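This section describes the prediction task in plain terms. A model, or a person checking by hand, is given the sequence of a single protein chain and must write out its three-dimensional structure as a string of tokens. No templates, partner chains or ligands are provided. The sample shown here is typical of the held-out split.
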Amino acid sequence: MNRNIITSLFAVLISITAIAQEKQWTLKESVDYALQNNITVKQTIIDKEIAEQDLKSAKGNFLPTVNGNASQNWNFGSFIDQNGGRISIDSRGNGFSLNTGVTLFNGFRNINLKKQAELGVEASQLQLKILENNISLNVVNAYLNILFNKESLKLAQEQVSISQKSLDQVQELVDAGVRARADLLVSKSQLASDNERLVNAQNSVDLSLLSLAQILQLTADGFDIQDVNIDLTDAVLAYKNSNEILSYAIENRPEIKSAELNIENAEINYQIARSAYYPTLSMGAGASTSYQHLQGQDDVRQIVTGFDPMSGLPITEFQKNGFAQQIENNLGYNVGFNLSIPIFNGFRNDANVKRSELSKARVILALDNQKQTLSANIEQAFADAKASLTQYEASKISLESQELAFQNEQDKYDLGVSTYFQLEQVRNRLINAQSSFLNAKYNYVFKTKVLDFYLDKPITQ
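The expected answer:
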């Protein structure tokens, strides 16, 4: 029975593994998985959570602090007791206090720290968005590369099949004495060339699958994607120029917003540095009490109950003075204000203010540079998309021409007015045209995806 159970479990595991390996990933699944499992994304999410805790801490600066203290001490030899008298006896005691304080004014520093923490949360969200955008684009590029290589592989397989059939036909004709043996050598050479192209195409598919699997941080063993039928019947650019794309990107792209936040943050840093010139006003309050016990003696205290009418001397008696009684009797309160006025600190405040001014000037330039970079990238992306469309249309016409040329050459060869070498030359040009067409097709698809990327449009559709 145990053997049967083990065998059944093993079969189930094999079945699960086979199903996992047979899974074909869609483009959306690939992008979603990458965004959910990428280590850098997870680290950025943690950075965002840290920024949220920084904001929580900054908000806490406006709240009063409350601290409780408790102490245990031992005194040996001579010391001053609670009543102010000096005694020479060992004792032990406890002290308890509760203190609170709040900053009333510190040059608006706390207000600016809170604003800065809020910007930190927003900045971390933008960084996450930038990272997710870049990962999505990388996944789409890798996915399209696989589709391109798979189509190239199918084309190579078809050519090998055609070459093999052609070789068999030529072999029969040569054996029958109808064709020269030179045609057989040409046919074998063509088959060898096509087989080499097939091997290279298979290697390209395997490497592109490995590349996407690595982006998804998955094993490449058994990894595959779904085939997608890309219809470019109406291949046109949706935009006449790059101005519309650039205008949207300048207003909405997270890279620009992040650079703008850096300027706001630099301004707040400047205000924080200037807060050191202002006085700081704080208020504090507290309550404290204590207990003291003389070793070897009872907890009592001597009190005056009256005066002797004859001598005028005070009449005293001892009352119990235990822990609870001392805690109650020794309870005291305090409240106060503290004003700190900066006068001179070795020009450190001046240096900090100047440094913050320079930092602000630097991030303003960084924003201008980011806008210029974005503008250049979008203009280049639009030019690439436009060129890729032109290339696609030209390669489509070229492919149609080469197909007609090959068919014409095939007819001439069948009629005996063309050599097999000439036929293979034309077929090689057809193969090159097919390869160029595939390359232009997927290049155009990716370039248009890049334009959608800058417009924050879904690039997984």
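For orientation: The longest strand covers residues 91-105.
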